Amino acid sequence: MTNIERLIHQLEASGRDVFWQGQASDSSIKELETLVGSKLPASFTAFLARHGGGGVVGEEISGIEDNNPTLEYRGTVYGDTRRCREDYGLPSNLIVVYLGDDDVVWCLDASDFNGEECPIVSFNVFTAVKSRIAASFGDFLEEYLTLRLSR
Question: In this predicted structure, what is the pLDDT of residue 102?
Fold first, then answer.
């Protein structure tokens, strides 16, 4: 994740309003996996362990806030996933990593988990159609950071 860490440092130095939820422990990540009903990909668990979630304020990546995976706040993986499953019929194989104000939902697609990684998909809450947007969370995160640095 060296390129991602470099991009994170650039984003933090850019003057943008950036917020990180704080490091998540291995036990918190394991508990989150139990709560969402799926193993999480390596690139996402590494991100959670290092930053917990977050990013540019108003566009944060869902995570584990205060090392507590059971929090159901907006901006937490568990809270966003549970909310989308209940309110929008999000399939159980999708785990929310981004829930935008306009109901844009980007998810890990655990149905395509290869033991190490799984793709990121967008889920249209109105049509229940999913579309692949990145091969892995690492690819998604790199694009997320690059796009925010270019603004």
Answer: 75
